[in-house]
Amino acid sequence: MKWTSDHNWLNIAEYVSLSSSFAGLIVALTSQQLVYAAAPLTLAMSLNFANRQRFQQQVRQQKATISKVCQETQLLNNKVLSLPSANQVNVLEVSINHLEQAIVDIDTKQQINSLIKAFNNRPELKEVDDLKESISLLHDRIINLPSFTAPFEPSHLTAQMENLTERLENLPLATLQQEVVEVQELVRSLDASAAELHDRTRNLAQMQQNLDTVQETTCSLNQRTTLLENRIDTFELSIKQHLDSLQQLTIGYIKADDFERLRAKLSQELTEQIEATVEQRVAEINYFLKEIQPKYEYKLVCDRDQSRSFLLKAAKEAKERLILVCPWLHWGIRWNDGELLNLFYKLLGKPNSSIEIGWGHYLDMENKQVRSSSTSLRQSLKTHGKMYTALPQLEKLEKDYPQQFKLKLLGTHEKFLVCDRAWAMLGSHNFLSSGDKSQEREVGLWTNDPYIVNELTKRFEKAKDLEHQHVHLAVAS
Predict the structure, then answer these.
(1) Is residue 423 a contact partner of residue 446, using CB atoms and an 8 Å limit?
(2) What is the rounded CA–CA span in Å between residue 370 and residue 152?
(3) How far apart are CA 160 and CA 138, in angstroms?
(4) DSSP 3-state of 402
(5) Which of 129, 436, 76 is nearest to 292 (CA)?
(6) Domain ranges of the chain
(7) Is the pLDDT of residue 82 over 50?
(8) Backbone Cα Rg of the chain
(9) Cβ distance 322 to 347 under 8 Å?
(10) Do 246 and 266 form a contact (C-beta atoms < 8 A)?
(11) Is the model more confident about 433 or about 95?
């Protein structure tokens, strides 16, 4: 908007100079003094040159934006090229089908062999063989019986038949039934495996379809980028031709009427072409940038009142984990009748919630009185440091919620917070050591970019807790 305003003023000044040149030309013709025509004409050429420089600067900015879009498009092309081709996907599908069939064949053969072996090893087969042998022996004995004239008495045969019947009734039929149930379960397991393999094959087809869509989108972006570059080249050539014509016009001697008509026509054509081309290019560039930019938000956090409001917002919205890192524990915690402490208690009352605070300024830890004290680092900082007045209240929280509330001594000057891995804020405000009434300028950044949120979380988790470390920390130069 500022460039357009300056450009309009320069156009008006150029028009006024050209009008003055016309008037000066008349005066020069009347008074025979060439200076009256030369001075306004020189001013008009200077203003035209300034307009040209500003326009070229705008064109360079557009080229830089287009170059950035081209780089993003090239990165997208590289990612697409790294994906497997359609032939590779087909080969993979064929291999999976072969593997599926081989697995089914192997499992089926193994199960059949196992069943045959189990069937052949059944104990009732041995009993059947024993029965056959007993029947054979009985048959032989019957044949070999001598002939008696006395009446035949079949009582002993009846007893043997009863014995055989009892043995048949005692065969382990329950074992056979159990084996049949196991076979049925194996069949159901095979059916489930086949369904799972079918789902995986269907997922491969969906991946191939997504790959085709990405390739089509990439080709479309490449075509649009090429068309945009060609149009910009044509536009630059047209501008150059018009500028050359204007330069020749100012050097040569032409009539005033011809000069005025040519100037008006040239000015109108340039204005129309510039406006149309710039609007079209800006619309296309905005479209491309909208398509490629991530869907994450970034907001500036200005001054202490905004920083304080985001701190309270994090304490209210957190459901699982709240990380706060600030070197000093002072007025920011006790401010406004301890509203932040009250929010801490509410958060810790939720199941599976936690609060972790990284604290302790590095130079305070290297203070002579702190280093020479025989007590712990925490106690020494609480005794000799003036910026840790809220530490007793936090220690009470640590005692009441030993599994949920943690104080981690870092030796830091960082100021950031992370709310549930959902968003983060970092900046210059010591939000745990001051309130929000000061007019001192502060600035920070709020974002829900998962990369920044995860990196801040990792940085806090990897930092060592120096509270119980007895190694002396050297003072940084």
Answers:
(1) yes
(2) 119
(3) 9
(4) coil
(5) 76
(6) 1-126+187-293, 300-462
(7) yes
(8) 46
(9) yes
(10) yes
(11) 433
